[in-house]
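Design a sequence for this backbone.
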């Protein structure tokens, strides 16, 4: 809701149905704590390669001029809410969309290797960057495992998330992987953090920790 103040009238709150179009060379990365973006985000891959001989050098300018017409046509096409929701859900969950998301978000790719646990005691410690790094640390400490994954991907230091940002990003990525489950009150049923005997734990574990052999170069 947006507060609107009109001359000679009382202020009012208005719902604005806006459409934003953003273009980048890479898929956009969102840090989404409550799953609101993940539940609504739809990726439709356009990955068909156009032969050089058929490329239009003025294509970008043509698309810019037709943006409003394209948007209007889409809105006219999906006038039935249930039909639109069904089609968009199919796109949101398909493997191609997941692949695009993972190429643009290494934390989402990292999350694919984990599953939820029933209790925090069964889950991993969150850990940190400092201290020793034995194979047991990588198996039992989530942030240590993340750093090993980043090293495996040869990520630049600027692209590696610090601990606080990582916790938020991982929680959002795991919940998106799980379909952003919520209870009747709208509370998340996915990844949670909790202090257990003085240690911060998270209710996840490796689906198969043998992947660490590959990340650490022992495969």
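Sequence:
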């Amino acid at each position: 809701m947006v507060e609107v103040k009109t001359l000679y009238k009382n202020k009012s709150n208005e719902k604005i149905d806006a459409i934003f179009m953003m273009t980048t060379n890479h898929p956009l990365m969102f840090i989404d704590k409550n799953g609101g973006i993940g539940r609504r985000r739809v990726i439709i891959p356009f990955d068909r390669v156009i032969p050089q001989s058929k490329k239009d050098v003025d294509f970008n300018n043509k698309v810019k001029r037709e943006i409003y017409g394209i948007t209007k046509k889409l809105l006219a096409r999906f006038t039935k809410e249930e039909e639109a929701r069904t089609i968009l859900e199919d796109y949101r969950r398909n493997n191609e969309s997941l692949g695009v998301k993972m190429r643009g978000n290494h934390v989402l790719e990292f999350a694919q290797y984990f599953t939820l646990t029933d209790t925090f005691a069964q889950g991993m410690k969150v850990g940190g960057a400092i201290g020793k790094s034995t194979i047991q640390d990588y198996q039992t400490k989530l942030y240590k495992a993340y750093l090993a994954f980043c090293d495996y991907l040869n990520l630049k230091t600027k692209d590696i998330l610090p601990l606080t940002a990582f916790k938020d990003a991982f929680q959002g990525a795991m919940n998106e992987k799980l379909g952003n489950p919520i209870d009747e009150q709208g509370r998340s049923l996915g990844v949670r953090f909790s202090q257990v005997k003085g240690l911060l734990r998270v209710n996840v574990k490796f689906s198969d920790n043998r992947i660490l052999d590959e990340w650490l170069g022992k495969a």
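The chain has two domains: 2-101, 106-215.
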